[in-house]
Amino acid sequence: MNALAAAVWKREPQRALRIVDAHAHAGPYSLFFIPDAGRGGLVRVMDRCGVSHAVISSHLAIQLDAAEGNAQTAEIVAQAADRFTGYLTVNPWQDPAGELDKWGRDTRFGGIKLHPDLHDYPLTGRRYAPVWEFAQRTGCPVLTHTYDGSPYNDLPMVDEVAARHPGVVILAGHAGATPLGFDAAIEVAQRRPGVVLEVCGSFNTGADIATMVREVGADRVVYGSDFPFIDLRMSLGRVIFSGLPEEDRAAVLGGTMTRLLQWRSGLG
């Protein structure tokens, strides 16, 4: 039995490797109650599960107010930089260029977060142009929500954007979200080297994750939980018990995302 699985059965936090959660959130959300939505609550859950680091976006930023939400994300990271990196959320209706100008060189942010479904704006729209220019110039990865069949962030839209901007790293959040979406996401990633599959969601299994790794490689698949939308324990368990070889599992759980966050070191 591998060390990760052994820790689960012993009900102990794993300490075998550095796990990086590539898709998490912080702060209250307007549509459901989160008992402890602050930094402390996040850290307690991460510690219980043996997750070393999380890349977070504020619920306020993705839903209602990007400017104030990004400020909240920056404050959380400032309080615990060893545990968190921020996603700079860009709402296409709320001054995308201004938010990038304000926070783009702030080392508390390691990626950009887009949520076309919540913002009612297509991933392929011109209002995202400052995002792609910034990401192309700096190497900053962009996490976008994806969902099979969505009018705003379906996989063909990811394909189109990746074709337009081949130098940009695009994390396909939820990897399409449904079984049909997983197949489409794999096909896009096979065509577009800059597309990385992020695996959080309600419908995937360890077998789905293993298929993604087999089809596109462990260096193109990253673990994310979507916590607190989805239970961190379940999201983590799907990878731990996916049957992946130890080296591939380590890459998915942290190695690949750690590499994608290293672009910051080149900005000076």
Can you tell me about this structure?
The structure is a single chain. The mean pLDDT is 95. The chain has one domain: Alpha-Beta Barrel (TIM Barrel). The chain contains 12 helices and 8 strands. β7, α10 and β8 form a beta-alpha-beta unit. The chain has an 8-stranded parallel beta sheet with strand order 1-2-3-4-5-6-7-8. It is α/β, with parallel strands linked by helices. GO terms for molecular function: carboxy-lyase activity; hydrolase activity.
Supply the key terms:
ACMSD, Amidohydro-rel, alpha/beta, 8-stranded parallel sheet, globular, hydrolase activity, carboxy-lyase activity, lyase, TIM Barrel, 268 residues, 44% helix
Can you lay out the helices and strands and say which pair or pack?
Blueprint: H1 3-9, E1 20-26, H2 39-49, E2 53-58, H3 59-63, H4 66-79, E3 84-89, H5 96-103, E4 109-114, H6 116-119, H7 129-138, E5 142-145, H8 155-164, E6 170-173, H9 179-191, E7 195-198, H10 206-216, E8 221-222, H11 232-240, H12 246-260
